[in-house]
């Protein structure tokens, strides 16, 4: 559930504070937005990997308890 919520959060657009008439501000906001999205996606990826590992551990422990 946390991985799903984090992946949704990663897809939410970032807030932009710029004057669209100033090219330097556009470039700066774009670079900051890309950096923010990259961080969000890394967090979502890490939680997804942790979730996948925990599901794998759960499945193995259930099957090993079932065999016993």
Structure description:
With 68 residues, this protein is mostly helical. It is 81% helix and 0% strand. The chain has helices at residues 2-11, 23-67. Helix 1 packs antiparallel against helix 2. The longest helix has 45 residues, at 23-67.
SSE inventory with pairings:
Blueprint lengths: L1 H10 L11 H45 L1
- Regarding quaternary structure, how should these chains be classified? single chain
Q: What proportion of the residues is helical, as a percent range?
A: over 70%
* Alpha-carbon distance between the two ends: 30 Å
Radius of gyration: 20 Å
Quick one: biggest sheet? none
Number of strands: 0
State the low-pLDDT regions, or none.
none
Number of helices: 2
Strand content: under 5%
Mean pLDDT across residues: 94
**H-E string:** HH
From the spread of the alpha carbons, the general shape counts as rod-shaped
Class inferred from helices and paired strands: mainly alpha
